[in-house]
Design brief:
The complex is a heterodimer of chains A (288) and B (215).
Chain A (H helix, E strand, L loop, with lengths): L1 H8 L3 H17 L10 H11 L6 E6 L6 H17 L3 E6 L2 H14 L14 E6 L4 H9 L32 E5 L5 H14 L4 E6 L4 H10 L4 E4 H14 L8 H31 L4
Parallel strand pairs in A: 1-2, 1-4, 2-3, 4-5, 5-6
Helix pairs in contact in A: 1-10, 2-10, 3-9, 4-9, 6-7, 9-10
Chain B lengths: L1 H5 L1 H20 L3 H39 L8 H18 L5 H33 L5 H16 L2 H6 L3 H36 L14
Helix pairs in contact in B: 2-3, 3-4, 6-8
The chains are: A alpha/beta (288), B mainly alpha (215).
């Protein structure tokens, strides 16, 4: 037995890489449908959007870099499709120069889905382009959005000319803000959420991000600054499952991502077991 | 005039003045102080943008020199610098037009895919590292391996369905223990930043000014 374990331990790393590739790629092409679990915060985030009145104006912002488009980009797609299905007005902003170039292609893709039928650019959704991330621009958005985004991205027309943004003067005019964070959401909370909630007490803030942002977001959630969050692939996939159950045609394929992640975790656990069984056998033989 | 500009004291006094104004605006909240702080923050953003431009020009100059002048050097990597130079100039060129279709194409089909690939490589390395490195040889290593296994199980819903007892343990690790450690780190970083700030304001830390002590 120990000989086999030793052999596996000394395996050519290229075989491991091939195994990893197959386990990750297979479910992306042929989804397996591993079970998902809905966390309390994911359900809360879903219900928050479900209970917003029709035609509420929400802002969806993206701060992630290109590295995360493929993973975190899925929650952007799920949020956008859910909002469109719920007949909410969506104003999209990018706080990352890389995402600013990525969003237009996503909007073009979205236009092919059934939940976009009858939706009109400038009336139901709009893209304002890139806004610098940081305290100074957040402070501007809080007082006057036009200071940072005077026109829309596609047509360069003033915001007053679009029905969706005509009455949005400052950030507190939004009913909710769903932001995809690129790092810990300290600036978002300090310079936008807390001051906005002081002016508009019904304002709601949702955050999506990777596991690196979990701890800080949890603290902000417990303090009431964030109304909820959708963090990590399990949460994104569970959120997608909820919106699909409500009849939204899936776009993000976060569930496919979760299948890959589950397979990858299986592989990692196998590696932990093999690695430690070999240590166990070595010890029994009297090795170090 | 040039003497004043070359004197380090000038910059230390400027730093002290602007720091006092910005920190003061947190304690003296009036429309005037807020307006001054906002204006200073904008200046900060503008200066950062100018420095970014300066950095970009320096990088172009550096890679250009290495690509064209160092063709015969021992490193034999002049072509790497040439690729960096060409890629940078191309991206800057096609990125100039706002919403340019070419820029978006490069962004989606090249930048995103390359960036994601670079990130994904970590996964492949992780598998090998787990096999060869994550072993129980000491008690602290055992604690770490147990935590890793629990978090792996906790982040995989199928395991929570099979072993429901994983859920509360995972919650405890993630929401209590990890949060406590993160808080300790945040507080530690905060205290260190405060101490460093005091040293900079007091003129005890002058490394940020660059150059030698007597310059």
């Amino acid at each position: 037995m120990s000989e086999y374990i030793e052999k596996i331990k000394k395996i050519d790393p290229r075989w491991l890489h091939i195994a990893t590739l197959i386990l990750i790629a297979y479910p992306l092409i042929y989804p397996i449908g591993w079970p998902l679990a809905q966390s309390e915060t994911t359900l809360k985030a879903f219900n928050l959007i479900e209970h917003l009145p029709e035609k509420s104006t929400v802002c969806i912002s993206v701060s992630m870099t290109a590295t995360m488009f493929d993973a975190q980009g899925r929650i952007f797609k799920d949020w956008f499709s859910h909002c469109m299905k719920k007949n909410l007005n969506v104003v999209i902003l990018s706080f990352s120069p890389e995402a600013a170039g990525w969003i237009p292609s996503q909007i073009s893709q979205a236009e092919t889905f059934d939940w976009m039928q009858g939706k009109k650019y400038g009336t139901d959704y709009i893209y304002l382009g890139y806004v610098v991330y940081g305290a100074a621009s957040f402070s501007d958005l809080l007082q006057n959005i036009r200071k940072e985004a005077a026109t829309d991205f596609f047509y360069s027309k003033p915001l007053d000319d679009w029905p969706i943004t005509k009455n949005i003067r400052a950030f507190p005019d939004f009913d909710a803000w769903f932001f995809i964070a690129g790092s810990e959401p300290k600036a978002e909370v300090a310079y936008l959420i807390i001051p906005t909630k002081k002016i508009n007490t019904d304002f709601r803030a949702l955050m999506a991000g990777g596991m690196a942002e979990y701890t800080t977001s949890r603290i902000y959630y417990l303090s009431g600054d964030l109304d909820s969050y959708v963090i990590g692939a399990p949460d994104w996939a569970a959120y997608e499952q909820l919106i699909v159950a409500k009849g939204v045609s899936p776009w993000g394929n976060a569930r496919g991502l979760m299948d890959s992640m589950t397979n990858f975790h299986f592989l990692l656990l196998t590696m932990v077991i093999i690695g430690n069984v070999s240590v166990f056998f070595k010890r029994n033989k009297g090795g170090s | 005039m040039s003497n004043i500009l070359r004197n380090k004291m000038t910059y230390q006094v400027m730093l002290l003045f602007f720091s006092v104004v910005i920190i003061g605006s947190y304690y003296i909240v009036t429309p005037e102080t807020q307006a001054i702080t906002n204006e200073l923050m904008k200046w900060g953003s503008i200066v950062t943008a100018i420095l970014g431009l300066y950095g970009g020009i320096s990088a172009l100059r550096y890679h250009g020199l290495r690509a064209f002048k160092d063709k015969n050097n021992e490193e034999k990597i002049w072509n790497t610098y040439a690729v960096i130079l060409i890629a940078t100039v191309t991206i800057i060129g096609i990125g100039l037009g706002r919403g340019s279709g070419y820029y978006q194409w490069v962004n989606v089909n090249i930048l995103t895919t390359i960036d994601s690939t670079m990130y994904t490589i970590i996964g492949f390395m992780l598998v090998e590292a787990t096999l060869r490195g994550l072993r129980v040889r000491t008690i602290p290593a055992a604690v770490m391996v147990v935590c890793v296994v629990i978090m792996l199980l906790f982040q995989t819903p199928i395991f929570i369905n099979i072993f429901p007892w994983i859920d509360p343990i995972g919650q405890l690790l993630q929401n209590t223990i990890a949060s406590a450690v993160a808080r300790a780190l945040t507080i530690g970083v905060g205290i260190a930043a405060f101490y460093l700030g005091l040293r900079v304001l007091a003129g005890r830390e002058i490394g940020w000014l660059g150059g030698s002590k007597n310059e």
